[in-house]
Amino acid sequence: MPSLLTPAETAALEAAPFTYSEVGATAAGAPPGYYSYSRSRRTYGIDVQAATDRLLTWKIHEAAGLTVASSSERVAAGTVARVSLGVGPLRLQAPCKVVYLVEEPGRTGFAYGTLPGHPESGEQLFLLEQAHDGSLTFSITAFSRPATALARAGGPITRWIQDTMASRYLAALYAGHPGRCFEVRRPERPRPQSG
Fold first, then answer.
1. CATH code assigned at 55
2. 177 to each of 72, 76, 138, how far by Cα in Å?
3. Which domain holds residue 180?
């Protein structure tokens, strides 16, 4: 379970602007000028409600090795969070705000966008989709570009970290759940789009 932000931290993050102008763009596809990727995994035998609860209570993020401090225990549109990776002085803070929530028959998820202080500028969508054949697909779609000198200096290492985190998110949903993984799809390594 994530720790809760203080009222002052919540108010400060809620008042902060997004660090990119294409807010909500993960719903339709990545805008030009960003590094983008989409990863997904389909499986059978996973309880959909348990997977939904795991996603919407930040447990996937925590199981992927991140620390989450959020304005609420359950994700909702407008929820703000400070997601962090690492320890002590090497800890990277990543403030973000939930842009939209997906709550449709057979589809559940959310997208969050970056706030000032996040090393990247962009948006990430986490989506669960249940098919008629009983399979459950967990997809992660994102677009970003470096927002800090550290992220810019990281170059390919920064992209490797993003790719690694996407893999960890996918694995975290299925950790400890019976079922069999049916398919892993991984597109060619994306390249920055011009624009």
1. 3.30.530.20
2. 25, 25, 14
3. 3-185
The whole-model pTM stands at 0.86
User: Which helix or strand (DSSP H or E) is residue 164 part of?
Assistant: helix 156-174
Yes or no: say if 51 and 129 are a contact pair by the CB < 8 Å rule. no
pLDDT tens-digit readout, 29-53: 888 888 888 888 888 778 888 889 9
Task: Give the count of domains, the chain.
Answer: 1
Distance CA 104, CA 90 (A): 39
Half-sphere exposure of 77 (CA within 13 A, CB side): 8
> 112-143: per-residue pLDDT in tens?
999 999 989 999 999 999 988 888 899 999 99
Residue 108 is encoded by which pair of tokens? 């559940």
User: Is there a domain that residue 194 lies in?
Assistant: no
- Indicate whether 102 belongs to any domain: yes
3-state secondary structure of 163: helix
Residues in contact with 189: Cβ distance below 8 Å, sequence separation at least 6, in sequence order: none
Can you tell me whether residue 132 is helix, strand or coil? coil
